[in-house]
Amino acid sequence: MSIVNDIRTAFSRRDNALNQLLLINVLVFVAFILLRTVLFLVTKDKNAHLPILQWLAVPSVPGTLLTRPWTLLTYSFIHFDFFHILFNLLNLYWFGTLVREYLGDRRLVSLYVLGALAGAALYLLAFNLLPVFRDAPAILYGASAGVTAVILAAATLLPDYTFSIIFIGPVRIKYIAAVVVLVSVAGINGGNAGGEIAHLGGALLGFVFIKQIQAGRDLGRPVQAIGDWVGNLVSGRPNLRVTHRSGPAEAPTAKKSGPIKPEQEEIDGILDKISRSGYESLSKEEKQKLFKASQK
């Protein structure tokens, strides 16, 4: 089928991380909708899918979590409500596109994964340390923590970038991020306290992630290393070992102390282009050079 071929092609590309994250969420959503329907037709029980959900969602009880550690990641790809996944994927696409343009595919995936882990961590802390939640066991699922990390990362990276919102007009994304955080804080005393707390964990991670990148430290390296190891294991590719042959001595080369910064004249040219044609007229390479220059 052409749909199957399209999906296989999307996952075979190495520069397609954003679409792959979107696809995984959609495929899991469709799988659960089909599973829930089949189980209902067979058992006549609308809640027959809950035991499976509980094996994939993060439990608030630490003892249960120890028997299901994989839930710290699997929960971030599970949705049951159409509007829940719709808003999550729209935000992931809009803000993820910005993060991917500046930081690349690998860091986008790292940010999503770390945001999900941070959201789960804050949720577990709240439900086990705060008296108001301690006697109310719950489960956590949904991509919102990872998506909120991407939103806050984009807003920290490009605070004055504007999105045009229907009925409102152009809005700087730093204000969109502020509203996202405020809504999550206000929703803690509502019916989805665990989800809102997880949003805040993801938001904090997104902010810290970019601040560390700007300071020259990449928090996503462990995630990338694990991803490389799993990829090599699945594909059967051996790890490459570097060997040195003895030979004529080579002239010593200057040691690089960090990434090469774009020349000031080139940056001035990019800024002139923005003043003439707007930020959207820049190429991906020009945007990356502008970001590197901002780290000076």
From TrEMBL:
It holds the Pfam family DUF6576. One of its GO terms (biological process) is proteolysis. Its main location: membrane. Signal peptide: none annotated. It is found in: Membrane. GO terms for molecular function: peptidase activity. It comes from the Bacteria. Residues 243-262 are annotated as: Disordered. Gene3D superfamilies: Rhomboid-like. The keyword Nucleus does not apply. The chain crosses the membrane at residues 21-42, 72-96, 108-126, 138-161, 173-191, 197-213. It is a multi-pass membrane protein. Keywords: Hydrolase, Membrane, Protease, Transmembrane, Transmembrane helix. Residues 263-296 form the DUF6576 domain. Residues 68-209 form the Peptidase S54 rhomboid domain. PANTHER family: PRESENILIN-ASSOCIATED RHOMBOID-LIKE PROTEIN, MITOCHONDRIAL, RHOMBOID PROTEASE. Belongs to the peptidase S54 family. This is Rhomboid family intramembrane serine protease. It comes from Hymenobacter fastidiosus.
